[in-house]
Design brief:
Layout (H helix, E strand, L loop, with lengths): L1 H10 L15 H11 L19
Length: 56
């Protein structure tokens, strides 16, 4: 679960250390949920290409 969350944070251009914000009761969990629901960075980042809109 932690690895998937950190990969998603990398996908939106945030550091994996943002995961630790969930240690703050209530507010941290809500903020992490907001971060995880945001759109990915447009184009390619250092972790790979953005696959949104990829057509087969």
């Amino acid at each position: 679960m932690i690895a998937v969350t950190v990969r998603r944070l990398h996908d939106i251009g945030k550091s994996g250390f943002w995961y630790f914000i969930c240690l703050i009761p209530l507010i941290g969990s809500i903020w992490l949920l907001v971060l995880l629901c945001t759109d990915s960075q447009p184009g390619q980042n250092q972790f790979g290409a953005n696959l949104k809109g990829y057509n087969n």
